[in-house]
Structures are given as structure tokens and as C-alpha cells.
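Why does residue order matter? Because the sequence determines the fold. Keep that principle in mind as you read this record.
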Amino acid sequence: MSKPLKQIHLAAHFPGVNNTTVWSDPAAGSHIEFSSFTHFAKTAERARFDFLFLAEGLRLREQGGKIYDLDVVGRPDTFTVLAALAAVTDHLGLTGTINSTFNEPYEVARQFASLDHLSGGRAAWNVVTSWDAFTGENFRRGGFLPQDERYSRAKEFLATTHELFDSWHGDEILADQATGTFLSDARAGSFVHKGPQFDIHGQFNVPRSPQGRPVIFQAGESDEGREFAASGADAIFSRYATLDAGQAFYTDVKSRLAKYGRRPEELLILPAASFVLGDSDAEAEEIAHQVRRQQVSGATALKHLEFVWNRDLSSYDPEGPLPDVDPLVGEEHISRGRAQVRMYRDPLAIAREWRELAEANKWSIRDLVINTGNRQTFVGSPATVARTINDFVQSDVSDGFILVPHITPGGLDTFADTVVPLLQEQGVFRTEYEGTTLRDHLGLAHPDDRRSERVAS
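Structure:
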């Protein structure tokens, strides 16, 4: 007997501080004006997506002591945007990245409980950590937390927020829902937490929200991050969207759940995925080539190379050969607070590899960056993209995808109008929302359902 088809989960990522967006395209719009967020969210909801995702940047990028001005410099506060979107959407989940290194459990729990109330149960929290003192300079405890301790804080942070969410619905609290009066002497919202990171007690003042707790996302890919996700997250925002790498990541993370008493379906794996559509596969490939060249200008290519070389390369021609000088190693890095700094742990080896590639393919600096950087995940006609997405999900590469368009805010429109109907025809994607909360969309149990199971047993 063949196993039943998995239902695909789709979400939309509103691009933030990144090198994905094509700024030069006439269709590119604002990342600040609320109309952009509204257009994007309504398109995602029209397509019956599970949720909209907002990343967060806590500091402007810097390189060589100057503001890095080749991509978007920032965005309005995440909670403010999501709360505003709750008023113009009815079903779409609202997911925001909030840092556990520089915030406090009480304030974050209060904000997410409030968002869950305002949205009718559609809030989700992408729990992230920050490893660098550069970002920490913006905060009171700037840079105090060693990298190897960040997940310890994150785990206790998440556990503490759960205690706060649950303080309004513990086993000892019984209430008359009609009158709102409590039938026991327990104080709703009372909490006490004592731990290495947090020693707090008091009264949580936001009542139990529709989902009980927000859906929890986690984005780490390290062994610590995978274990953290397996222990308590509802979904992983993964970077592994190719067949082999995706299957390996999927198998590894799902295999960790049993030790925490969890089933595979209790943790969804949702990689980020970019896409380019055309009337034919050949046209889509040509558009994808053009998009990559728009995404990587000459100036962007030089800045990217500086991540590895750790030196000013502004005098080099981006359409010319790679530098013949070696990267600087063991000095303060030219790029502060950039993820790419951590990606290249052996810059001398990377430089040798890139020189060999450039020589063999007759690539310029810009050609090299275009061909070694992130490429579009799905490229083809709507039929090809729909088929590939379904094949990947059915092959356990993921449980779905978080789509990252290269045009804001209209880059999702064509996908919604052409690919989604094909997935619906295949019976692997919803035609209507069947529930009201994000947990309903994702097929996740409500925390109170689990509590009922415990009480019954």
C-alpha cells in the first residue's frame, strides 16, 4: 500500500536585510511603507498560505567602518508590523523573529500573547540568538554573552516564556467562562522562575490567548540548534532546500524527536526557497540568469569578496580577475556583524578554491560571486515548479517551503496565481482554510489538548 500524499505547507517571507531583492527592477517597492506589507500579506492569504514571516535586523550593517549601503538598511519594528497586519488579514499566520539574547522573557511573552489575542490565534515566534558583540553594542549587556552560552540562555528563555504563557491555565486554575470569575483560590498569572539566566517572579498580566502559546520556530542549523529545535520548537526555518542536503537534514532532525517524547509530525521542517517563473523552462532559466546579475552588481561582488579577503578591494575591477594577494588572517574583520564572516572559516583555502574555479571557467570576480553564491531554488514554468515542490515534499526533503521572492511587494503574485492552483489540483495543498489559528493550518496540537491528555491519563 502506498503511503498517503503529504499536504504541503507554504509560507511567504517578506525579504529584509539581504542580497535577494532586486532593487533596480521598476516593480521593486518600499520595505517601509505599510502598503507593501499589506499587498504581500493579502497575496499570501489569497493563496491560502500558512503564514507570513518577518526576519529582524537589530543593527545596520557595516563594512570597512562605513554603513553597508548595497541592500536594505532596516525595517519598522516587527511586532508593530505584525499587529497592524492582524487587522487587514483574517486567516494568515503572523510570524516574527525576536532575539532571545537581548530581550527578556516577560516582555516577549507579553508581546506574543497580545499578538495572539489581536490576531485571533495566528501568532508565531522565530526564536533566534545573537553571537556577536557588534550587535550587542546596541544593548545594555552589549556582547557579554559568549557564543557557546547563547543556546543555554535561549533554552531557558523559551522555557520561561512557556511558564508565563501557562500561568493563566495551570491545572490548579478553574474558571467560569461565562462570568470570568475564578472558582479556586489560585492567582491567575502568578509565576516563579529561578534559573542560571533568569530569576523572576510576579504576575503575568495577559490572559490565556487563543493558541495558548505562539507557534515556535527555530532557525539554527548547528548541532546545538537542531537539538534545541527537537526539544521544543514546532517548526524549523531551514536553509537546506536541495534534494540530498534537504533529505539528510530532514532525517537527522526528525530522528532527534523521540528522545523528547515527540512524534515526527510535531516538528515541521520548512526551508527558505527562492523561485523564478517563466512561460517555459527555458524562459525561466533566462530570467533567472538576468535576476542573478541584477542581484550581484559589480559593487556587491567586490563587497562579497572582501568578506573572504578581509581587505579593501575597491581598487579592483569586478569584471576583471581575482586578486593575486592572499586574504588577511588573524586580524579584526573588515565586516562587522555579518553572517558571512562565520561562513568562511578558512579564507586561504577558499581563496585557492575560488582562484582555481575562476581560472578554469574564465570567470571575473562578478562571475565567480554569481556562480558560487545562492541560486534560485525553483526555476521553471509553473507546471515544473509545482511538480518539483511536490516531489521534494513527498520525498521528505521538507514539509513545505517558505518562499522568498526577489521583488517586493509583488513578487509573490505570479506564484499565487499560477503555481498554487496546480498544487491544489494535485490534491496536496488546501483550497480553503479549515481552521482559524496558525496551529490549525500547520496541523499542530493546542497546548491545552496535550494538558487534557495528561489529566485524563
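The first strand starts at residue 9 and ends at 14.
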